[in-house]
Specification:
Length: 432
């Protein structure tokens, strides 16, 4: 089987790792692979965002399956082009990808479908948006409506912060075209949980929930990033809660998209806030999350390839079930100095054999490159060090030990990934 993975970050490295476990005989092609993937895949010298060239290449190369990792090619219609050429592709069409590419559209759709989410209003005019904030007060959340690499949501503790965020997005175009429109939401209190749903357009199967850590600083301080770490499983994700998420959130969202002639086939990612009033949607994404993928897929015992291929070929999930390891996984993202702002590149990376030789440590590369001079940094998020263990504490220990041992100039990482889970366990132990 010949499989093309579009994208070259930590999510795509994890997908390649899992697919080779499911189908060792498969040939994997990856668009401009990073330094950690180069030895296990065949490189394709086309940028992930060049949808015309990619569709033509896949057609000429008789590719059996295309899996699209990042949101931008999905929002640009790569799957639509592949489908017109008869190439099985896993991922939503451009119309269905609006669930992520336009937060304004997503909020309107949720409102129509009765999906629980925060109260909101959308604006393109700065003066009107500022007037709304002054009327509503703070805390409040300001979001760029378009694609902003996971950094476009700003939680504002004061009205002045919110007014400044609006100025930055709408006037200064801090997020470029993604900020032509903003969504202003009521602040929700609670703990977040990430849920991936494998969807065939109408039905879905939920994957193991995880929890992401967006802020750059320990204790959830500082600006948002693309994600500084994640863990799974999440103790709050009981079977009744997941049934509620599927019945009240995923299923009606899929039905609403189908009514909009935008059947969603691929991974529908729901960022969930667990409020006192029940689960509410923070946001939807139209693809696997990063770094959640780096903890969810290592715990998936059953095949990922089988349901993905079935959906890509136009089939239905039917009675598909997924089998999960009883273990735990925690990943720590090693980032470049200065991230999520500007950062240096081409910093030499040293990974000790004690890390690469540990069966309970998986390294998923993101911003790395490999050439004659060795392995170097090439992005803001560099490597996700995933630890595995029978308990989350063991997984955390493995992850953090690996993060400590990997070396490159300016390395930064959080040492508190999973802190809420550990606090809950400590409280439970004290109460018991």
């Amino acid at each position: 089987m010949r499989i093309l993975i579009v994208g070259n970050g930590g999510r795509e490295h994890t997908l390649a790792w899992k697919l080779l476990k499911d189908a060792p005989e498969a040939t994997l092609f990856v668009t401009k692979p990073n330094g950690g993937m180069i030895d296990i895949v065949e490189p394709v010298a086309i940028a992930p965002g060049d949808v015309v060239a990619l569709a033509g290449w896949a057609d000429a190369q008789n590719i059996d399956l295309v899996i699209v990792g990042p949101e931008a090619p999905l929002a640009s219609g790569l799957v639509d082009r592949l489908e017109r050429s008869g190439i099985p592709a896993f991922g939503p069409t451009k119309a269905a990808a609006r669930i992520e590419s336009s937060k304004s559209y997503a909020k309107d759709l949720m409102q129509r479908a009765g999906v629980p989410t925060a109260d909101f209003a959308s604006f393109v005019d700065l003066t009107e948006a500022q007037a709304y904030v002054r009327e509503r007060g703070a805390p409040i959340v300001v979001k760029a409506s378009g694609l902003a690499a996971g950094k476009g949501a700003i939680v504002c503790e004061t009205v002045d912060e919110a007014l400044g965020a609006l100025e930055s997005i709408l006037a200064d175009r801090a997020f470029g075209e993604a900020g032509r429109e903003v969504v202003i939401e009521a602040f929700m209190e609670g703990e977040e949980m990430s849920v991936f749903a494998i969807a065939d357009g109408h039905e879905s199967v939920l994957m193991l929930p995880s929890q992401d850590h967006k802020r750059i600083g320990e204790g959830e301080v500082g600006p948002n990033t693309g994600g500084m770490g994640a863990y799974a499983p999440v103790s709050l994700s009981s079977a009744p809660l997941l049934a509620q998420v599927q019945n009240d959130i995923i299923t009606p969202t899929l039905a609403a998209l189908a009514e909009d002639d935008a059947e969603f086939r691929g991974i529908l990612y729901a960022g969930i806030m667990l409020t006192e009033d029940g689960p509410r949607v923070v946001e939807f994404n139209c693809r696997f999350g990063d770094p959640e993928t780096q903890v969810v897929l290592p715990l998936l015992k059953s095949s990922l390839l089988e349901p993905v291929l079935e959906i890509a070929r136009g089939g239905r999930l039917g009675d598909t079930t997924l089998e999960w390891s009883p273990a735990a996984a925690l990943t720590t993202v090693l980032a470049s100095e200065g991230y999520p702002g500007s950062y240096p590149r081409s910093q030499a990376i040293h990974i000790p054999e004690s890390v690469t030789g540990d069966p309970d440590v998986l390294l998923f590369h993101a911003g790395t490159k490999s050439d004659s001079s060795g392995l170097e940094t090439s992005g803001g998020r560099v490597i996700a060090a995933t630890g595995l263990g029978t308990t989350l504490a063991q997984a955390a220990s493995k992850s953090r030990e690996a993060a400590d041992l990997i070396e490159f100039s300016g390395k930064q990482f959080r040492k508190d990934i999973g802190w809420r889970e550990f606090a809950r366990a400590e409280q439970s132990a004290e109460a018991g």
